[in-house]
Amino acid sequence: MRVLLLGGGGREHALALGLGADPAVTHLVVAPGNPGIAQGAETRAVDATDPQAVAALATDVAADLVVIGPEAPLVAGVADAVRAKGIAVFGPSAAAASLEGSKSFAKEVMAAAGVPTAGARTCGTDAEVAAALDEFGPPYVVKNDGLAAGKGVVVTGDRHAAERHARDCGRVVVEEHLAGPEVSLFVVTDGEAALPLLPAQDFKRIGDGDTGPNTGGMGAYAPLPWAPPDLVDEVMATVVRPTLAEMRRRGTPFNGLLYVGLALTATGPRVIEFNARFGDPETQAVLALLDTPLAGLLHAAATGTLADHPPLRWRPGAAVTVVVAAAGYPGTPRTGDPITGADRPGVIHAGTARSADGRLVSAGGRVLCGTATGPTLAEAREAAYALVDGIGLAGSQHRRDIARAAVEGRVPVPPID
Ligand code: AMP
Ligand code: GLY
Hints:
By secondary structure, the chain is an alpha+beta fold. 31% of the residues lie in helices and 26% in strands. The protein folds into four domains: 2-90, Rossmann fold (3-Layer(aba) Sandwich), CATH 3.40.50; 138-175, no CATH class; 179-308, D-amino Acid Aminotransferase, Chain A, domain 1 (2-Layer Sandwich), CATH 3.30.470.20; 318-407, Phosphoribosylglycinamide synthetase, C-terminal domain (Glycinamide Ribonucleotide Synthetase, Chain A, domain 4, Alpha-Beta Complex), CATH 3.90.600.10.
């Protein structure tokens, strides 16, 4: 099988490692890729949000399967253009990717499907924002209605900050605040059949103890030792199957990776958000544990044959990934700094580049991830931090508390009322 993977971040490096390890894959091309990916795959330049350019590249490399990593190409209609060439694609159509591309659309689908989620109001004026903030009260949750690379959400007790964010965004969704630990559940689907991966937890804020601004994600681990044993079955029944059925009913079946972001609240699991692609950095942890060949799984979803796919196999133990971010992130990151210690197994590249003289330098906000597995979560955590501690990057930042509360049995899961 010849595979073309689109993207060039940490998620794509993890996907490339998984695809490259599948014996069915004879050739892997990643566009645009990054210096870490380039060590194990052919990389090609492409404008990933140009549907015709990607479709032409897929034809040029004779791809049997195209896997789309990031959300922007999905929302731009890249999957539609590649499918129109008769090539199998793992990734939803532009219409189905609206589950991620528009927060208000996702809320509409959830309401129609009876999916438990936060109450929400879509607001376009200051008066509508003020009324919604009054209705839900603090802490205030204000979300940019469109794509914002994980940084369009403000959760704050400060009314002025909430109003300011709404004004900066224009159209926003104001939400009820959901209290409880967060879970990321990834579901591989062909629109009808659906296979959940191991649940993971992401760390969204820049600082230890969940302080500071939201980021794209500073670390993750899987599985979740504290999750109720029936959590995945419950989410499949109350969230995933009704949502997939509603998308089919609308004539826009969702084919690809449905990322369900949940809060485990006192009234049960409720959806915080949907994404239309693998999460970053949860993918780095989850795929480190997947034993089932990845290309075969994604090809089955892309070709509507997932119902015939064998059950997923997982390696025992746990996986932890810790993100090393550049100075300045999640604001404007400092780039061009030399990186050392990145050429060890488990170091996943995200925002890296080669300088003119061939040195590895930083080139984005999230620069690298240290990803490790272990027989226990504590051992996986130690191994991930050993990788991170061996990375040299001036001014870099990383959290010291990824998976710590879980190792110490301190994740507060509320009892269901
Ligand atoms: P989103 O981009 O929708 O995932 O939001 C980013 C982060 O903001 C989430 O991972 C949560 O930590 C937080 N958040 C979003 N919506 C809510 C909500 N309704 N209640 C509590 N926290 C939220
Ligand atoms: N880790 C959060 C995301 O991928 O959106």
